Amino acid sequence: xxxxxxxxxxxxxxxxxxxxxxxxxxxxxxxxxxxxxxxxxxxxxxxxxxxxxxxxxxxxxxxxxxxxxxxxxxxxxxxxxxxxxxxxxxxxxxxxxxxxxxxxxxxxxxxxxxxxxxxxxxxxxxxxxxxxxxxxxxxxxxxxxxxxxxxxxxxxxxxxxxxxxxxxxxxxxxxxxxxxxxxxxxxxxxxxxxxxxxxxxxxxxxxxxxxxxxxxxxxxxxxxxxxxxxxxxxxxxxxxxxxxxxxxxxxxxxxxxxxxxxxxxxxxxxxxxxxxxxxxxxxxxxxxxxxxxxxxxxxxxxxxxxxxxxxxxxxxxxxxxxxxxxxxxxxxxxxxxxxxxxxxxxxxxxxxxxxxxxxxxxxxxxxxxxxxxxxxxxxxxxxxxxxxxxxxxxxxxxxxxxxxxxxxx
Length: 409
What we know:
Blueprint: H1 3-8, E1 43-47, E2 50-53, E3 55-57, E4 61-69, E5 74-81, E6 94-100, H2 102-113, H3 137-152, E7 155-157, H4 163-177, H5 182-186, E8 190-195, E9 198-202, H6 206-221, H7 234-244, E10 257-261, H8 262-269, H9 279-287, E11 294-298, H10 303-317, H11 319-329, H12 334-346, H13 353-365, H14 379-396, H15 399-408
Parallel strand pairs: 9-11
Antiparallel strand pairs: 1-2, 3-4, 4-5, 5-6, 6-7, 8-9, 10-11
Helix pairs in contact: 2-3, 3-4, 10-11, 10-13, 10-15, 11-14
């Protein structure tokens, strides 16, 4: 699990490697203190302020605890995802956590305990929870548990290739099981016109963002020629993605931002992406104005991600900016251009000169020069990067501040 990403979106709350107290009370969805209700459960273990039940259930998960050893106390937990009928969602969507000490299991109780206040209709959002858990609360809870296990070196056993794939698979399975509709997604997007006819779409969950943009983005620039510019189904892309990715289907948690030109939206509205649209795709198309020339998407509230995506918006809509960038990139030594190209291809981008140069300038706006491993830094590349950044600031004006302000509101 990518700890830097989790920290950036608020799922982690530690500094310098220190976790907050797992027993610290926080407001629950009902407004009362967040206390795990174990009065009706058999007590497995008690130590000071921490009381450990034999089981903890809510509408999303069934968690069974066991005592592995007494001296020192060591615990295990089995977490089972539940469907809308309260039955196991899938045999693949369960995990076992071993080698937990008192503080680790207290964290598990705190995280899953607050979900007891929720009903299934709160799957996508629950405004009464602490900020780090408000957006897709059950999935955010899983991310927190995976991160806790990684930091505390607990052993976690599951059938997926990675914890990211587990969370993505859980999100898709629950959306299908709960029959989540386009209307359910509509309130999760915030649109801001940051440049003329360039709209920034913000949502607070990378799961929502990634699942919304996936088909639009891959229709635009997927390296697979059978998918790029062709109609394709979600499962078709997923099968191809898993074949090339060791981490399994972790797509939603891999990309902090997205960018698509207007012709992709036009094709989607004309049915050229394939049908039917997923609910989040339908909600997204309804939300984006018909006059949009370019759409960028992000969920992080950091400056670099917004600058990167805004650079795409400028490159795609402003001919003068695009020409200025081309003149700057032409100053790169050929070996450096080729090295940057190889780096981008390794990241999964399509081998298309226009798209590659668009990505080169966007990464340079972030301050990156796309060096290969062990490649010696090139002074000329640094000067090109600085020149492109100055060009970006001249053309973007206050667009970055407008987008950043909208995302933080």
